[in-house]
Structures are given as structure tokens and as C-alpha cells.
Amino acid sequence: MSPRRSVADTLETRQRILDRSLAIASAEGLEGLTIGRLATELGMSKAGLLGHFGTKEALQLAVVDQAAEVFLREVPRKVKQMPSGLPRLIDVCEAWVSYLEREVLPGGCFFTAATAEFDGRNGRVRDALAGMNALWRRDLRIHIRRAVSDGDLKPDTDVDQLIYEILGVMLALNHFLQLEHDAAAPRRARQALRRLLTK
């Protein structure tokens, strides 16, 4: 086997591990990831699986990165052609609703579940989750401030309050989709977001 093929096989195996890990973690939490379970489901040895990550914590951190990549692909990158400000903010919110509505991950929003799981802990996984959430709030803040400066939102808009309320709508959407299996939840979320983003 050529070295190039060997590297490609290694990357492919690592990606299979991450894809399966993310599916499990979205539904059962990051603590639901066990090396034994993953090895069995993927037809690998425990040692072979650990060889890709080293520790469970390293695997968890890689899953956080993988979840961020999926979210980026499904939400902000889908609307990157829209101008910054209210048009992009509206489209970002719609892409976000659609992401949850289409059940891209079996357990709904990975970050909602993982944040609830780790918010009271210390450590690198909690810090990674907090960092991802902070980056996303920063992006929302940029679009809201631009919308205010463009005159599309009221001049006295409380940016942090609006971010809080948008996040609240999305948390509620995830809750009603996952726990209640409420088919009306996306419609309600869209209605709530329209009220928030209309001058």
C-alpha cells in the first residue's frame, strides 16, 4: 500500500469515527461516547480506535469541532452570499430553524445538549463549548449592529437582549422538536423570530 493511500485510509477511518461519535453524542451526550461501544459499532479494536485520538477527552474535543463544522456548513455558510445586517440575520435564523427542522443530527442541536451536559463542569470540553457559543454570539452581534446602523432595526435596539431572545427561541424550538415531537414548533419559532426582527 502506498503511503498516500495509507494516509487517506487513516483520514477516512478518523472521519467515520467522528461521524458516528457525533450522531451518538447529539442524542445521548458526550458522556455517552465510550471507546468500547464505538469500537464495536465500527468493527474496530479499542486500541485501533484510541490510536486516532489518544484519550476520551481528545475524542470529545474532536466531536465538538466536528459539530461546529456541521453547524457552519448548515447555517452561516448557507447564507454567506447575503449582505451583512438584517438580510443575513433573517436568513441565518431561517437556516438555523431549517437545520433543526430537518433533523440533520439525530438528537437535534448538539450544542444545546452538550452545553447542558457540561455547563456546570470545568475542563477543556466545557471551555471548547463555551468558546463556540461565544463565537456564534459574536456573529449574531455583528449582524444585529449592522442592521441597527443600516436603519433596519430600531436605533435603541438592545443588542444583547435581542441575542438572548433569539437564542431563547432556538432553545425552545429544539426542546419542542426533541422532547415534545411538536410538528408545529418550526412554524412557531419562525413566527417568534419575525416578531423579534421586525422594526
UniProtKB/TrEMBL annotation:
Pfam family, one: TetR_N
InterPro entries in UniProt: Homeodomain-like_sf, HTH_TetR, Tet_transcr_reg_TetR-rel_C_sf, TetR_C
Every HTH tetR-type domain range: 11-71
DNA-binding region: 34-53
Keywords: DNA-binding, Transcription, Transcription regulation
Gene3D superfamilies, A to Z: Homeodomain-like (1.10.10.60), Tetracycline Repressor, domain 2 (1.10.357.10)
Coiled-coil regions listed: none
PROSITE patterns cross-referenced by the UniProt entry: HTH_TETR_2 (PS50977)
Protein name, per record: TetR family transcriptional regulator
Organism: Lentzea pudingi
Organism placement in taxonomy: Bacteria, Bacillati, Actinomycetota, Actinomycetes, Pseudonocardiales
